[in-house]
């Protein structure tokens, strides 16, 4: 019943799937994106990682996909929320590319 | 014990500043390893909008951070004890980037740079105008603006006159205002003609919106920009000196520390110096590297808090637009 009202109130849905090469990077992305709360009451979002992260594989190199599901009352709200999410995602990935500990270490070696 | 290192990030207004600072808890020695800043400069006649500022910070964050780390010459980012960021106050959108609050950060930086140990602090910037003194592990607000900040007053008047925002409006205003102190030949000194502007000190507080309104009216009537700027400067700085002097008399301090972006105005420093000298004291001020929002002040306050055991779990690392100076527990000072 609760699920039905959720779909009624937030009919516009978009799921963004972002593949990451390792579990660590996927978890880092999830944590950094989740910390900024969704400001609009007209938008709901949920984060999941698949396949699910278990305690055992936090250091493994298994590929993981970050699923971000956005639900909004109108398509306009959905567009605004997803656009802003994309900007944050872009920064997170840029930071991973240039400022991760292993990237900086590799750079220090080559220079 | 080896010194501790911190990376500080500040981006709660139109400047993105990142720096690395070290502090040795045993010797209390502080060392600045890097201090990189990139400013979002909006076209003349316009202010910086949150959306554009956020886009600027996102675009430059990685390059500024890399430069700060490279200039600091740390062997590995793993040497950093903590990463500190500005929790507030500031604009919501750009802040998204151990949280610190800007006023204590400015104050700690000023104390380290100038060596003033327990001054009355005038914190003057685009968003803040406060007279602050330390008492029992809080920076307490003695007086403040009742409406807009003094820096906001200056910036908005600069916008009225379409004065360029590069490097920052306050600097250009200061250079223009200086002209009023010289005759037309540019070398002979003279007393500037002071225009009649409201002088709004109310007890320990002051107000700047009326002065801005009056200056806007004058600007519409006359062309002598330097006279209006000089008159406005003399008036608002006199107000600030007055409330600072009252706070000094109250707490019995002979030191004044001027921090925040407006603090690099040399005329304000000079007027404050005259007042402090009359009281047998002195004024401490820093230059634009440390006055204006920067990463290392955030790093320093964050690192001092870290040393007293302050930690922020990742899921609590949020930002807020409202954060009062006296909300912060200054655990690292014991005097």
TrEMBL record, chain A:
It holds the Pfam family Pcc1. InterPro entries: CTAG/Pcc1. Belongs to the CTAG/PCC1 family. This is Uncharacterized protein.
Automatic annotation (TrEMBL), chain B:
Its EC number is 2.3.1.234. PANTHER family: TRNA N6-ADENOSINE THREONYLCARBAMOYLTRANSFERASE. The keyword Transmembrane does not apply. Keywords: Acyltransferase, Metal-binding, Transferase, tRNA processing. It catalyses: L-threonylcarbamoyladenylate + adenosine(37) in tRNA = N(6)-L-threonylcarbamoyladenosine(37) in tRNA + AMP + H(+). Gene3D superfamilies: 3.30.420.40. It comes from the Eukaryota. Residues 33-92, 106-299 form the Gcp-like domain. It is an enzyme of class 2 (transferase). This is N(6)-L-threonylcarbamoyladenine synthase. Transmembrane segments: none annotated.
């Amino acid at each position: 019943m609760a699920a039905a009202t959720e779909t009624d109130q937030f009919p516009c849905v978009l799921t963004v799937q972002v593949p990451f090469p390792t579990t660590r990077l996927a978890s880092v992305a999830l944590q950094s994106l989740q910390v900024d709360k969704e400001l609009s009451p007209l938008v709901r979002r949920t984060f999941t990682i698949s396949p699910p992260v278990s305690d055992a594989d936090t250091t493994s190199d298994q590929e993981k996909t970050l699923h971000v599901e956005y639900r909004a009352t109108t398509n306009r709200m959905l567009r605004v929320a997803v656009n802003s999410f994309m900007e944050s995602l872009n920064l997170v990935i840029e930071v991973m590319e240039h400022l991760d500990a292993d990237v900086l270490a590799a750079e220090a070696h080559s220079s | 014990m080896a010194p501790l290192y911190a990376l500080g990030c500040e981006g709660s207004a139109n400047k993105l500043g990142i720096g690395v600072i070290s502090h040795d808890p045993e010797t209390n020695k502080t060392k600045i390893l890097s201090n990189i800043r990139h400013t979002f400069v909006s076209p003349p006649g316009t202010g910086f909008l949150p959306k554009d500022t956020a886009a600027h910070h996102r675009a430059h964050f990685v390059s500024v951070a890399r430069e700060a780390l490279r200039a600091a010459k740390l062997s590995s980012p793993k040497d950093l004890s903590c990463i500190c960021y500005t929790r507030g106050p500031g604009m919501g959108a750009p802040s998204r980037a151990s949280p610190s609050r800007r006023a204590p950060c400015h104050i700690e930086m000023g104390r380290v740079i100038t060596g003033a140990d327990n001054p009355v602090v005038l914190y003057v910037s685009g968003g803040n105008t406060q007279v602050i003194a330390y008492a029992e592990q809080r920076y307490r607000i003695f007086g403040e603006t009742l409406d807009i900040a003094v820096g906001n007053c200056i910036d908005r008047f600069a916008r009225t006159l379409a004065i360029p925002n590069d490097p920052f409006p306050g600097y250009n205003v200061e250079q223009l205002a200086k002209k009023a102190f010289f005759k037309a030949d540019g070398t002979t000194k003279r007393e500037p003609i002071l225009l009649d502007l409201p002088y709004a000190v109310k007890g320990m507080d002051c107000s700047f919106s009326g002065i801005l309104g009056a200056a806007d009216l004058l600007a519409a009537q006359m062309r002598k920009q330097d006279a209006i700027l000089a008159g406005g400067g003399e008036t608002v700085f006199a107000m600030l000196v007055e409330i600072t002097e009252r706070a000094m008399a109250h707490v019995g301090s002979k030191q004044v520390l001027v921090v925040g972006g407006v603090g690099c105005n040399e005329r304000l420093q000079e007027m404050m110096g005259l007042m402090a000298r009359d009281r047998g004291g002195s004024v401490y001020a820093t230059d634009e590297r440390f006055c204006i929002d920067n990463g290392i002040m955030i790093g320093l306050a964050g690192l001092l808090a870290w040393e007293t055991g302050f930690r922020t779990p990742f899921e609590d690392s949020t930002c807020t637009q409202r954060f009062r100076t006296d909300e912060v527990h200054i655990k690292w000072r014991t005097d």
